[in-house]
Automatic annotation (TrEMBL):
Keywords: Membrane, Transmembrane, Transmembrane helix. Coiled coil: none annotated. The chain crosses the membrane at residues 5-22, 77-97, 129-147, 205-226. The lineage of its organism: Bacteria, Pseudomonadati, Spirochaetota, Spirochaetia, Leptospirales. It comes from the Bacteria. This is Peptidase M50. InterPro entries: Peptidase_M50B-like.
Length: 290
């Protein structure tokens, strides 16, 4: 995947394939995986900020929820609520970048697969969609990390593109009923309003503002990840220098031990160790040194 054109062609082929089969049954497994990543973002942000997670659930209609108790304070709550959409874009962009770059692919898949399995075993209900999705994709990621012949890179690019594409598609939720999205939850919390009944205009305004901000960051994350992934590698300029060439007198060395006195005798007469005249440039250097 060193050629820029091939990278772009592969990326475009994956996007066209996903869009062509967007409503097909097998794509639903990918969608469930992205929803799981979204909810996992909330869960991980909660744990990082010192809170506790009770449950990760998937509803089967491309929706899910994370039941968590963030620590008190404004910053942890904002961090946890924002981690869903932004976290998905970070995962998608990072997978694309690693897949195309070809570095740290196996550790990336192992880390992601391990995290998915740990969250699944600890925070999903037995037999639920979240557990089935987490186990399936966690094992798949671990197995994929050991695939030979570049298949691990191809799978990484495919998953990264899928997660990124669905994460961008997920932003369309903000165009309808923004009050029911994470942006709406944050808007209700910021305005001190309780959900229910008629949605206050302040909640709608702030919700759309938050949605625009998240959308900007999400698109920026994926854009810069793609830009760095498909950009051609810079070719280092050749540093001009001296062509050292063969060392004088070493093609056919002087027979015997070369003592400082012998070397000085040859050089004082403008000869190398084979008795051949030294180049004028070398003689000029000798005069300067002398």
């Amino acid at each position: 995947m060193e050629n820029r054109f091939l990278r772009l062609a592969l990326l475009l082929a994956i996007i066209v394939t996903l869009l062509s089969y967007w409503n097909h049954g097998w794509v639903s497994y990918l969608k469930d995986f992205v929803v799981f990543i979204h909810e996992a973002g909330h869960a991980i942000a909660t744990l990082i900020s010192g809170g506790s997670v009770q449950m990760i659930e998937l509803n089967g209609d491309e929706a899910g929820q994370t039941v968590a108790s963030p620590t008190s304070g404004k910053s942890p709550f904002i961090f946890v609520v924002s981690a869903g959409y932004l976290g998905s874009c970070l995962v998608g962009g990072f997978l694309i970048n690693r897949g195309f770059k070809g570095s740290l692919v196996r550790p990336t898949l192992l880390l992601l697969g391990g995290a998915v399995l740990l969250l699944t075993l600890k925070y999903t209900s037995s037999g639920g969609l979240a557990q089935r999705t987490g186990l399936l994709w966690g094992i798949f990621l671990l197995v994929s990390s050991f695939l030979p012949f570049g298949w691990d890179r191809l799978i990484t690019v495919f998953l990264g593109t899928s997660v990124s594409l669905y994460s961008l598609y997920d932003l369309l939720d903000f165009t309808e009923n923004v009050q029911n999205t994470d942006a709406g939850i944050l808007a209700y919390w910021a305005t001190g309003t309780s959900p229910g009944g008629t949605v206050p205009k302040s909640v709608l305004f702030l919700g759309y503002l938050i949605a625009l901000l998240w959308s900007f960051f999400s698109v920026s994350i994926i854009f810069f990840s793609l830009k760095r992934a498909v950009a051609p590698r810079p070719v280092p300029d050749e540093t001009p220098g001296f062509d050292e060439g063969p060392v004088l007198g070493l093609d056919n060395p002087f027979p015997g031990e070369v003592t400082p006195e012998v070397l000085e005798w040859f050089l004082s007469r403008g000869l190398d160790l084979n008795g051949k005249p030294l180049p004028p440039e070398f003689m000029d250097i000798e005069r300067i040194d002398g």
